[in-house]
Design brief:
Blueprint lengths: L1 E4 L5 H12 L4 E4 L11 H6 L7 E4 L2 E4 L1 H11 L10 H30 L8 H24 L12 H12 L9 H11 L14
Parallel strand pairs: 1-2
Antiparallel strand pairs: 1-3, 3-4
Length: 206
C-alpha cells in the first residue's frame, strides 16, 4: 500500500490525495509538517532532504515534489486514463502542470497567506490586492481554455486537471468577491462532484 506523508492543510498533499482517489488506489496518509512536525526528523530527512510535504512511499521507492508524484502515479497506472499516451497530448498536460507551479500558484499564494494564515490585524491589504491582480487574468485565461474543451488538455480528464483543481479549491475558498468564470466553474464543479474529490477539494482552508 502507498504511504503518503503530509497534512491535508497543504495544497500539495491534497493534489496527491485527489490523484490516488481518482485512480482508486489504497493509501495510508500520515500527518506531517507544520504543527505535526516529523519533517525535521533524521528518518524523514533521509527520504526528503527538503523537509517538506508531501512524501510518497511506494514500497522501497520514495518520491517528493507534488506534481512529480501526481505524474508518477498517473504513469504507473496509465491504463486508468489520466496519463496521456500520445506524446503531444502528454506534454500538453505537462505544460498545464508546470504552469500551475510556476505561474498560477505564485500569483495566488500571497492572498491565501494573508487571508488564511495571517492574523487579521497583521494583514497587508496591498499584498492581497497585488495577489488578486496577478491571479484574475490567469483565471480569465483558464476560463477561455475551458470554453473550447471540457478539460484543460482536451476532452477527457487527465493529470493536468489535478493540480489546477486544487489551486481553484484554495482560491475560491478565500473570502473575496470573484468575477464570473462560467467555463471554469463548470469544469471545477464537475470535478468537485466526483467521489474522489472528498477529502481533497472539500477540505476547509487552514
Amino acid at each position: 500500500m502507498l504511504k503518503l506523508w503530509g497534512r491535508l492543510s497543504s495544497i500539495n498533499v491534497r493534489k496527491v490525495v485527489f490523484t490516488a482517489q481518482l485512480l482508486e488506489l489504497p493509501f495510508e496518509r500520515v500527518d506531517a509538517g507544520a504543527a505535526f512536525g516529523v519533517v525535521r526528523t533524521p528518518g524523514y530527512l533521509a527520504q526528503n532532504p527538503n523537509a517538506l510535504v508531501p512524501l510518497l512511499e511506494d514500497g522501497d521507492f520514495t518520491l517528493w515534489e507534488s506534481n512529480v508524484i501526481v505524474r508518477y502515479l498517473c504513469a504507473r497506472h496509465a491504463d486508468r486514463g489520466l496519463y496521456p499516451q500520445d506524446l503531444r497530448a502528454r506534454f500538453d498536460a505537462e505544460r498545464w502542470m508546470d504552469w500551475q507551479q510556476t505561474t498560477l500558484n505564485p500569483a495566488g499564494r500571497e492572498a491565501f497567506i494573508q487571508l488564511v494564515r495571517t492574523p487579521a490585524e497583521q494583514r497587508s491589504q496591498a499584498a492581497i490586492d497585488a495577489s488578486v491582480a496577478a491571479t484574475e487574468p490567469l483565471l480569465a485565461m483558464l476560463d477561455a481554455q475551458l470554453a473550447r474543451q471540457a478539460f484543460l488538455a482536451g476532452d477527457t480528464l487527465t493529470m493536468a486537471d489535478i493540480p489546477v483543481a486544487c489551486e481553484m479549491h484554495r482560491w475560491w475558498g478565500l473570502p473575496l468577491e470573484f468575477p464570473a468564470r462560467p467555463h471554469l466553474r463548470r469544469w471545477y464543479e464537475g470535478l468537485l462532484a466526483r467521489p474522489a474529490a472528498r477529502g481533497a477539494l472539500d477540505v476547509p482552508l487552514s
